[in-house]
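cron nightly-structures :: item 1 of 1
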Amino acid sequence: MADGLISLSAAIGALGLVAETGIILVDVIGRAFGSPLFGSQDLITMTMVILVFGGMALCDRNGGHISVDLLERKFPSAVNRVIDITAALLGALIFGFIAWSVWDSAQLSVMLNLSTNLLGLPKAWFQWALCAFAALTALGMMLRALELIVSGRDIRKEWTQS
C-alpha cells in the first residue's frame, strides 16, 4: 500500500513537471511575440510545490537523497545499520514537522483567504498538497526505519545493486 501511495505521489509530481514545462514553454514563446502568459509566475510557483514534494517519497525509497559514505567502510556493519535507522527516523521527524507546520500555515491561509497575486489561486490548496506529500514522505521514512529494524535489510541498497 505504501509503495502504491509513493508511486501515485511520484506520478502527481511528474504531472507537475509536465505542467511546469508547458507553462514555461508557452510563457517564453509568448514573450518572444510580445504577449507573455498572464499569471505564469503564480502557476510556476504553485506547480513547483507539487513537482518538488511529489517526488520526495520516491526519492527516499530509491535511495536518491544525498549521502556521505566517507566513513562507511571504516565502521562495522552494526554501526552503519544504526546510522541508517537514525537517519531514517530523523528524516521522518523532519518531514513530519514540515507537514505539521504547513498544515498550520494552510489553516492561516484559509482564515485570511490568502491567494496568489495575479490569478487568485487559493494558497491553501497547494499547502494541503505539500502537507500530504510531506506526510507520505515521513511515512515512507518510518517504514524504511522499521524495515531496517525488523529485517535488517535495506531495499534501497538491493535496488541500486540490480
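cron nightly-structures :: done
Residues 88 and 144 are 7 Å apart (CA to CA).
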